[in-house]
Amino acid sequence: MRVTSYSTLSSISLSNELVTLETDIERTVEDSSIDLDLWLQEWTMMNHGAAEGGRSALHDLNLQIQHAYAMLTLHLRALSASGIENIAIMTNQSLAVAAKHAAERHLKLILTRTGDSTTLTQELPDRAYLTSFKYAMRFVWAKCAFSVLLVLRLSMLLKDPVEQTLDYIAEAREVLVELEKLSGEVIYTRILASSIEKCEGAIGATHMQDRNTQTMDRPPEINGSKPTTIPTANIETAAEAFESYAPQEFLFDFAFPGLNLYYIPLDWQDLFVDFGAVF
Prior knowledge:
Elements: H1 2-12, H2 18-48, H3 57-82, H4 94-110, H5 128-131, H6 138-157, H7 162-180, H8 186-217, H9 232-243, H10 248-253, H11 268-271
């Protein structure tokens, strides 16, 4: 199903008419999402009817994780097919929002201890999915690190509240702690650690930028001196370092989608928000 939807999106991206392009992408995403939902429902039912009359909570969890990852990559492929990489100029950010929701769900599922209480009734071993990584292939490690990076990246690009992004960072650290316990693909634990570090740097840069803006909006001090602002070079460097972070393993070994997304505002008031700092 994923191969079919990716092929369809690739052929759509060759269209020259913007209206037709957007309509076809939306239709393909909607049809593919329905197919993936039906796939999850059917395989979950088969799992419940397995031999010995027992349902496997771990198998249910794995199915949900695969579904969330498929939804994430589907919407990222659709964004690529649209040809618009700058989230700031997207007239409709629904694809990016849906991708973030899928990545968020994937993150929460891989951290689950007892599963989703609405669908999983059996107790699971602590961090059941992540502990199985000891025997997992490189691709499984890679897509885990990739999906966590995308949660953090999309949270920043879509301008989530800082508190929400910090929650994602805390969950990302939980994943990192669990993976560091295993003697597996060290390169991907390093990539995950770097993703967290760069996101924290971008969060700090955002706070500094807000502080600069608030400082410029305040009137001069009583003695007539100008309020002090923080140089913008470090702010831009930290934010850009995270926004442009795309490990070569993700680009060349597995060609994961969505790593080309960025946010550059075209409103001159946003672009020159620190213009007053030079006077």
